[in-house]
Amino acid sequence: MAVNGGRGRGVRRPTLEEVAARAGVGRGTVSRVINGSPRVSDATRAAVEAAVAELGYVPNTAARALAANRTDAIALVVPEPETRFFAEPYFSDMLRGVGAELTDTDMQLVLIFAGGDRERRRLAQYLAAHRVDGVLLVSVHADDPLPDLVSQLEIPAVISGPRSAAETLTSVDSDNYGGARSAVEHLLERGRRRIAHITGRMDVYGAQRRVDGYRDALREAGVTVDELLIEPGDFTEEGGRRAMTRLLERAPDVDAVFAASDVTAAGARQVLREQGRRIPDDVALVGYDDSAIARHMDPPLTSVRQPIEEMGRAMIDLLLTEIADRRPPAPGGPERRHAVLPTELVIRTSS
User: Fold this and answer.
1) Does the pLDDT at position 212 exceed 60?
2) Within a domain: residue 141?
3) Would you say residue 4 lies in a domain?
4) Nearest to 216, CA basis, from 244, 255, 241, 185
5) Number of folded domains in the chain?
6) 263: Cβ–Cβ under 8 A, 6 or more apart, which residues?
7) Mean pLDDT, range 172-201, rounded to an integer
8) Binning pLDDT at 50, 70 and 90, where does residue 345 land?
9) CA distances (Å), 111 to each of 25, 91, 114, 120, 136, in order?
10) Which of 36, 136, 182, 221 is a plausible cystine mate for 345, CB 3.0–4.6 Å?
């Protein structure tokens, strides 16, 4: 007679229902704990995990995903060229936060670039085939059709930064308005009055809110908003160079610059130095993001810290909740959630 050691074929595997009974909770609660949903109390999670350990329960991932029509995969969709993704610290910080929050789950992360029409068509086919359980959308512009496509397919989704004040998808953002205000108020406190702003792409809602914060800070200080001091940018270094060149041509008396990103500030700094402007003696400079670029710039860059990693973690928390609920929030309905994380001005030598 054969001897069956451990959990061989002769030993029945404990069921999800048995784990629920041992933990004193419902089957759905056990499922949420196993799937990494944040909508479970610490005490309940501990009880379920103890029951899993006592019974030796091992989730059958493939069977569970098949039965629940699940793929155990999440797509991080970036509608930008790959070159921009790898050049800007914002994206790597966001990816780090997303990855860290997924560590304790069974979910796999799929990174998808959709910067061109061909990539977007391929992505539409991929999502229509329901190859993933949920979607994270990062760096979405106001006219981007991807969020509407995701909504039509009824795929749970979370967007990084709403497209407008009327965003219909669950979103996570930082306080762009407050961050910009704090930057300009700091420059005003330093005695600067000809404060220029190099914007981000104006089809990005966060960039619009930074302009609003810039304007309001000046108005409340009794400083006239000079439209000649607002120059469109695109969050890139080259965009910062172009914008700073144009600003100095038409407003050579500028004494401070608030840039919509650290990368943009780096481009502005190059032009200021080329034209013999000392930082901060002649022109104070403030960036946005508080990335490694800010810390390593010469002089070190004052910057608005945007909690990008925390934003990535928050996006995953909200998305896992929607996936566990097995339905996306109704557009415009009461289930829609918008998380706004605080920013912080980090003062360094450049201002």
Assistant:
1) yes
2) yes
3) no
4) 185
5) 3
6) 87, 88, 89, 235, 236, 237, 240, 289, 291, 293
7) 97
8) very high
9) 36, 11, 10, 14, 10
10) 182
